[in-house]
Amino acid sequence: MRDIKTPIPLLPPDLKKVETTAILRKEAKARATLAELKGFAPTIPNQNILINAIALQEAKESSAIENIVTTQDELYKNLTIKSSAMDSSAKEVINYREAVYKGCDIIKMRRLISVSDVIKIQETIIKNNAGIRKLPGTSLVNSATNEIVYTPPQDYRELCYLLDNFCTYLNDDEDSLWKMAVLHYQFETIHPFYDGNGRTGRILNILYLLLKKHIDTPILYLSSYIIKNKSEYYTLLQEVRETNVWENWCFFILEGIEETAKQTLEKVKSIKDLLELTLEKVKEHCPKIYSKELVEIIFENPYSKIDFVVNKLDINRKTASKYLKELEENNFLSPLRVGKEIIYINSHLMEMLKK
Ligand SMILES: Nc1ncnc2c1ncn2[C@@H]1O[C@H](COP(=O)(O)OP(=O)(O)O)[C@@H](O)[C@H]1O
Ligand SMILES: [Mg+2]
Prior knowledge:
This protein is mainly α. It is built from 16 helices and 5 strands. The structure holds adenosine-5'-diphosphate and magnesium ion (MG). The site of magnesium ion has 2 residues, from loops.
């Protein structure tokens, strides 16, 4: 593929242009905050509680950036029903979380991300196998004015070449946090797919953090920060392209990492407190049915149903139903009828997650 010409600068970027004093200072701060989160997260005994809740929230927010809008309650409700019966936005968000999990498995198994992994992740979100763009016509427009702001490469071989260069750089030894900003810019600039580029790019961000061990579980995501600073996100992406200056963009992403790591740490702490309090109280008020695993079920699944308890505790439906009813009677859960079934909501956790 050596002979391919492309106007897009290849990676790595010129270090002198990226590692400015301001960026290195911000990098140190972001690293320290992220390390604190990394250190605290394992104090929650069942990591699925964190991963499920935080990854679903990110799936919702990352999809919202692309105008796929749903609510936490809708999502959790849809998680209790068959995929064929799901609402279409909820389903797309749930696909996004599945893509995050798939990416995490790839990192765990191979500690490397290949071009075909990137394609797999995009396919999991979009649920079609169009793959890398082969037909021309894709451009990025300003949604307010409808004016074209950027036309990414249209040639299939050029896209493959650029993606290959992207993955080589992603996997190399450089492990800074500013590199995540560079990678995200490059991925969005290559824009290899007809759709799902924003979401795939944001999943690649967390996979990069996992790959370089900045975090051990997929719990740090920037979408809420991006939503809050949406116009800056678009403006700065465009600025790198037009001025070839990395500083503002990298600073913006590093600030996002720092701010989000702080918020996530607070969230993890509140989840931990609520879990400990609930364990204590269930033990006190429902001693006959109490087990650590039962309480963990209603934290792993803020919307629980009998099947979840049957499968996890390996007990029969009648007993599982009795357990959930007793938790409901003691105000640990609130019931909701969905079709023929009763779903049990951990409202205390839901309220906390929505904050
Ligand atoms: N000027 C720009 N330059 C580079 N990337 C951009 C620019 N404007 C938007 N983007 C990226 O394109 C994404 C949208 O692309 P799209 O394929 O529609 O993603 P998705 O399907 O996930 O909606 C945005 O989230 C952003 O990351
Ligand atoms: Mg889109």
